[in-house]
Amino acid sequence: MNLSLIPNIKHTNSNNFFLLAGPCAIESEEMALRIAEKVIGITDKLEIPYVFKGSFRKANRSRLDSFTGIGDEKALKILKKVSDTFNVPTVTDIHEASDAAMAAEYVDVLQIPAFLVRQTDLVVAAAKTGKVVNLKKGQFMSPESMQHAVTKVKESGNEQVWVTDRGTMFGYQDMIVDFRGIPTMRKFAPTVLDVTHSLQQPNQSTGVTGGRPDMIETIARAGVVNNVDGLFIETHFDPANAKSDGANMLHLDHLEGLLSNLVAIKKTVNSL
């Protein structure tokens, strides 16, 4: 894995996991810059390679009245401002093939949502931008089956591809992380563990997704012990009032303590 190919990424020689972190969705310029500044301060201190995450649009909502975004161009420009202000790479998810070229003008990594990772046109469009493509494993898919999604990217002329595990459906309203899948998927591509989405409790009768943020450190520790290349953590300074996925996000005030513990664990793993 060559993280150094990503523009503006730092600490690539630290032997740490890399981190994708930020709010679920871009709500405003002020909130994006506030979160980015805090996370960058922490990751610089701990020498963690960092990519700021924020969705410019949320397309997979349970209810028609759920928040979907502040406008595509407005949100993408905010992501670009985060990148320019703090000299940090950014990642956002795309939902339609036509999103790929548009988003690629503003961000460094294009993410394919788990529900859409089998959509060939979408995956190929992302690959053809030349950006890093982060493929989220479908909640309904085996780790082994992700090799085919990776192959689609590579056969489209792009070797820069990651796989992200975000849990597997366990009944109607819960997820589990099967850590046997980590070494399997690492055979195909660098592998990220999406800690916070793995703790979602979807399909609630209210139409608002629940979550178990109290288990974030448990899942993250297990990921680091099992040699994930990267971690994905959604974080917000006010999760209770976040416009999307607040129930499973990590409070920003808890991020430094968590990452400090995880870096210590990583150092132990590296010494084995």
TrEMBL record:
<protein>
    <recommendedName>
        <fullName>3-deoxy-8-phosphooctulonate synthase</fullName>
        <ecNumber>2.5.1.55</ecNumber>
    </recommendedName>
</protein>
<dbReference type="GO" id="GO:0008676">
    <property type="term" value="F:3-deoxy-8-phosphooctulonate synthase activity"/>
</dbReference>
<comment type="pathway">
    <text>Carbohydrate biosynthesis; 3-deoxy-D-manno-octulosonate biosynthesis; 3-deoxy-D-manno-octulosonate from D-ribulose 5-phosphate: step 2/3.</text>
</comment>
<dbReference type="InterPro" id="IPR013785">
    <property type="entry name" value="Aldolase_TIM"/>
</dbReference>
<dbReference type="InterPro" id="IPR006269">
    <property type="entry name" value="KDO8P_synthase"/>
</dbReference>
<comment type="pathway">
    <text>Bacterial outer membrane biogenesis; lipopolysaccharide biosynthesis.</text>
</comment>
<comment type="similarity">
    <text>Belongs to the KdsA family.</text>
</comment>
<keyword id="KW-0808">Transferase</keyword>
<keyword id="KW-0963">Cytoplasm</keyword>
<feature type="domain" description="DAHP synthetase I/KDSA">
    <location>
        <begin position="9"/>
        <end position="267"/>
    </location>
</feature>
<dbReference type="InterPro" id="IPR006218">
    <property type="entry name" value="DAHP1/KDSA"/>
</dbReference>
<dbReference type="Pfam" id="PF00793">
    <property type="entry name" value="DAHP_synth_1"/>
</dbReference>
